[in-house]
Amino acid sequence: MDTSDTNKIKELLSTAKNIVITTHKNPDGDAIGSSLALSHYLNSIGHSATVITPNDYPEFLKWIPGESSIVKYDSSVKTANIMIDNADLIFTLDFNHLSRSGDLETILEKAKSTFIMIDHHQQPDTYAKYMYSDTGMSSTCQMVYHFIEKLNDLDKITPEIATCIYVGIMTDTGSFRFRSTTSTTHKVIADLIDHGADNTQIHEKIYDTNTLSRIQLKGIALNNLKVLPEYKTAYITISQKELDQNSFKKGDTEGFVNIGLSIEGIKFALIFIENKGDAIIKISLRSKGDFSVNDFSRNHFEGGGHHNAAGGRSYLSLNDTVEKFISILPSYKNALNQ
Ligand code: 5GP
Ligand code: MN
Fold it and tell me: In order of start, what are the domains of the chain with their CATH numbers?
């Protein structure tokens, strides 16, 4: 987004607008945090902004300021359609392609509103009139901070906005440890604390609210962990039956993929989770260093994301998916052993 785009956006926002903010399916901390932060900011400067998510999100996000006002498309189709029809502006946050918005895709494709994208995923699509895309950014939340900064409104950051932005930077950086965490990220975090984000409380609310069944499911994941030393790879499988036996709720498997990556010498970690409802195997991929899981997932599992963190899917059975994965690995032996 260059200065001319910033000026055009300033002009657009100089009169009251109906605004819809939407994000990707199965929203995570960055998706919810960035959408709510932006909605608080836009409402505070005189607009009428609403967040619409394609579907529900984990319990551990259901305390973020403004969360109760979110419209979930899958349970409020009519309301959401009217809002999208009436929107002057639609912000799409934390995704790079309309197909990432699940059942919202068709209605967003038809919408006549002006689109503004704020996103940090690789290979962004070009559906938006204004694109603020930066794949080097830690999170879309950090970008919302810089967006407010570009509009010279940092003094309008309230404790609520600071809290929302803090959540997404924290979750997308693995608590400020991934490569995307820069000195600027830390400066932004410092400013958010100065604006009223209670860092200790936010960490506790996101990470220390496990249920016993979730910890037990983690035990299953640990038990199912397989290591392939010759490929510096580790993977976990979880079947639908294992999920059902442990009262699985959305978000319960969040972070499990990192268990494999924490083993010494492992560069590539995956988790394959059976989802009978959607008739897919959901795959999460993580890597360390030069190995691109964005490329790997794009090439083999209809997904993508970032260099070191991506998602994907398979329509085969859980066993066949793992077999396919293992049959592909030899062609990456060199890349994984560099
Ligand atoms: P996760 O493994 O946590 O679901 O996703 C890791 C990262 O990859 C996130 O930034 C997420 O937005 C992105 N991602 C997950 N699934 C997909 C997918 O199917 N396609 C694309 N392009 N990105 C994905
Ligand atoms: Mn993100």
Answer: 3-207 (3.90.1640.10), 212-337 (3.10.310.30)
